[in-house]
Amino acid sequence: MLRALTSVLRLPRPWRPLQTRSCASDGAAEDPEIQVRALAGPDQGITEILMNRPSARNALGNVLVRELLDALAQLREDQQVRVLLFRSAVKGVFCAGADLKEREQMSEAEVGIFVQRLRGLMNEIASSAVMGLIETTRGLLPGAGGTQRLPRCLGVALAKELIFTGRRLSGAQAQALGLVNHTVPQNEEGNAAYHRARALAQEILPQAPIAVRLGKVAIDRGMEVDIASGMAIEGICYAQNIPTQDRLEGMAAFREKRPPRFVGK
Prior knowledge:
It is a single chain. 48% of the residues lie in helices and 7% in strands. The chain is an alpha+beta fold and 265 residues long. Among the domains are: 2-126, 2-enoyl-CoA Hydratase, Chain A, domain 1; 209-256, Lyase 2-enoyl-coa Hydratase, Chain  A, domain 2. Strands 1-2-3-4 form a 4-stranded mixed β-sheet, with helices on both faces. Residues 1-11 and 20-29 have low confidence and may be disordered. It holds the Pfam family ECH_2. Its EC number is 3.1.2.4. It comes from Suricata suricatta (Meerkat).
């Protein structure tokens, strides 16, 4: 599998583990649970985050969440990063959700702190790819923004049904409901979703970086408020994009009938 990926990714930089202050979530000295790699060549600008906690099926434990937050904080300051992909090093699973075994050992105060950090992580990723909110089947309440994001995606009635029943959804069902954008048949290597994600990243890559970033801000922040406030947020983002070199380049390229050359300024 690795040999096949190497040829596809065109000599990417090697995986770079984060410099962490602790060991793995289960308390044993293991490899870092999060690694980062920037792609090269035609894929330059795409950075990948690899989740590598096979012993717990990439469940979100204390260390994994901290390392993810650290990675996102570092990458946010890297102007070379235009598209970020999340990958799993564990075959057959992306992320098993919150680590309930680890949570069982926490005090009530520790649970509150962990859930707050997990909610912060979900806000950073801003992902609505939910395949099932099964917390109620374990005597829990979705604590990482699920009770807020799901109603915005599906409407209140259907969100309540999924949360109250703890129902698990197949990829096709999730796509039909609008929880995920794409589903793909699995391949022999088990990485069909990754290749579809990379293809989507390559579509985003040539677009104006600042416009994409401000568009994300306008959508994410606008969804949290009423329509009038959302329109005001959109106006602020639009105004910030006006003086950029990329906007002028885009207009010039359109006028001259050539592909634009965006530089992220």
